[in-house]
Description:
The complex is a heterodimer. Chain A is of the alpha+beta class. Chain A contains ten helices and four strands. Chain A has helices spanning about 1-20, 25-60, 75-85, 95-105, 110-115, 135-145, 160-200, 200-210, 215-255, 270-295, and strands spanning about 65, 90-95, 125-130, 150-155. In chain A, strands 2-3-1-4 form a four-stranded antiparallel beta sheet. In chain A, α2 crosses α9 (about 215-255) and α7 (about 160-200) crosses α10 (about 270-295). The longest helix of chain A is centred in the C-terminal third of the chain and has 44 residues, at about 215-255. Chain B is of the alpha/beta class. Chain B contains seven helices and ten strands. In chain B, the strands form two sheets. Chain B has a six-stranded mixed beta sheet with strand order 6-7-8-3-9-10, with helices on both faces. Chain B has a four-stranded antiparallel beta sheet with strand order 2-1-4-5, covered by helices on one side. In chain B, a hairpin with a 2-residue loop joins β4 (about 55-60) and β5. The two termini of chain B are about 20 Å apart. The interface of A and B includes residues 205, 209 and 212 of A.
Amino acid sequence: MNAWFSQHRAAFALAFRRLWSTPLNTLLSLLVIGIALTLPGFGYVLLDNLRDVGSNVSGVQQISLFMNLDAGKKDVAEIENRLKQAATGKWHFVPKEEALKRMQASEGMAEIVASLPRNPLPDAFIVEPTNTDPEALEILRKEIAGWPKVAHVQLDSAWVKRLDAFLRLAKLGLWMLAGIFGAGLVAVTFNTIRLQVLAQAAEIEVARMIGATDAFIRRPFYYFGALQGALGGLLAAVLVFGALALLAKPVAELTLLYGGSFSLRAPGAVEVAALAAIGAFLGWLGAQLSVSLSLRKFD
Amino acid sequence: MIVASNLTKRYPGGYEAVKDVSFEIAAGQMMFISGHSGAGKSTLVKLIASIERPTSGSLVVNGQNLSALRRSAIPYVRRHLGMIFQDQKLLFDRSALDNVLLPLQIAGMPRREAVRRAQAALDKVGLLAREKASPITLSGGEQQRLAIARAVVNRPTVLLADEPTGNLDAETAAVILKIFSDFNQVGVTVVVATHDQSWIERHHPNVLRLDHGRLVS
């Protein structure tokens, strides 16, 4: 156990020394890996932020039901009845007078409303269905549209669905991007390790002659690949933080113009650790492939 | 200690470097393998070090039958064997001490103890004062002594040398061979392949003489 531990420590120290002793090579490799991981990492952070926007509103799955302008109290009562029978969920009635009042309350609209000869707004129902399944909502929408004196039925979740579809597409794109850059990272490590094996050929040959196991010879390369990948991952995290810092102010200004409050959420410790872990894993994978291929000629 | 029976090594292409060789080297013996260049000395050494595998026959070293050895077991067999090469195979990117430390690192010995052992080995070959030197700054004889220190630091039961004096002048060669016989005095089995006849004629050691792959005496 002690020997095992000291061998691993020695292999790790050796890998670190090799990284340290060729600063320019190391820096370039880290930049390549860092940039390769930055793009998917940054994309992930952006999507994560967008998903937050989506989830803030997606809870409100509403169907707005607008009556004809000539609909009377009787017609409203009829719809109320039908909604009760359909037992679709919660709903409330918004009379046209109240709708007008609400409109007057919102900024800039008061004058416009005052200038109108008569109330242009219809009576409306806001339905909050219990079953928010997209298909069920669509069926309900069609059913309601067929009721008497109903002018228009609107599924308010449409844009949420669109955002959702967009996010799904973006996520897929992100996975593809991550796959491509991940493969790139493996290739970079593969090549670095291959050159190292060539440079260490004498040492590998001697070590083999005097009783080194395959594991002993491979270990420093694995550590090297993993260490380089992890450092590249951390560099990517730094780059993502940098990009977010640059974006924070413009985003804040933009959202302010729309009267909203939205700030970009930076990745947390878990995400940074994940980025480093992914880098380490891919580096290890590249080292594993490279060492297996490169060491064949020593047999 | 080392028992060969009907040992044959045929290389791809059909060339037989060692043909139907049988011999026995007892524990604690000092044995020379001699013969002209191309007689199969190096191949025999490589077979004993399990660098090459026998084509037929059997070769038992330290109780291990090398022809039936799994690939993964080879490193552990080599650890009981001190190997010395004609071209030393020293690593020039590190100090003399670090060269000697390598076998101990491979065996997983804690650093403090390993350094102590490596210094003792350097002392035995008279190189303790040069422990921090790079091997490239050492003379040919010193390099060969450093290679010996690396070979014995693991306290192997067998010391195996392939033309250890090949590139050295007679005087230096005598120093190297004296070191071998010192190790043999303390119980290490020593096998030396050499084409150097003068030393053999002077000291009349045990000799396996090879000619075109066959054992002639």
